[in-house]
């Protein structure tokens, strides 16, 4: 699913960056993509996806 329609950033891309590169905050996602740099409507949903991914990763590690 596309999270950022302006720049074509998907939920899969956000999850991949979190899992493979260890990105844990929205600033890190913004450094790697153009997420939120145009209209900004995607940032809230991107944060939710990132947080969910981190929680699942933490639970699997426990």
Automatic annotation (TrEMBL):
Residues 2-52 form the BFD-like [2Fe-2S]-binding domain. InterPro entries: BFD-associated_ferredoxin (IPR052371), BFD-like_2Fe2S-bd_dom (IPR007419), BFD-like_2Fe2S-bd_dom_sf (IPR041854). Coiled coil: none annotated. Its cofactor is [2Fe-2S] cluster. Keywords: 2Fe-2S, Electron transport, Iron, Iron-sulfur, Metal-binding, Transport. Gene3D superfamilies: BFD-like [2Fe-2S]-binding domain. PANTHER family: BACTERIOFERRITIN-ASSOCIATED FERREDOXIN (PTHR37424:SF1). This is Bacterioferritin-associated ferredoxin. It comes from Vibrio furnissii. The lineage of its organism: Bacteria, Pseudomonadati, Pseudomonadota, Gammaproteobacteria, Vibrionales.
């Amino acid at each position: 699913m596309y999270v950022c329609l302006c720049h074509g950033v998907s939920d899969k891309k956000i999850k991949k960056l979190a899992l493979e590169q260890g990105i844990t905050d929205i600033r890190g996602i913004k450094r790697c993509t153009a997420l939120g740099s145009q209209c900004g409507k995607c940032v809230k949903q991107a944060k939710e996806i990132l947080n969910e991914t981190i929680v699942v990763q933490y639970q699997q590690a426990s």
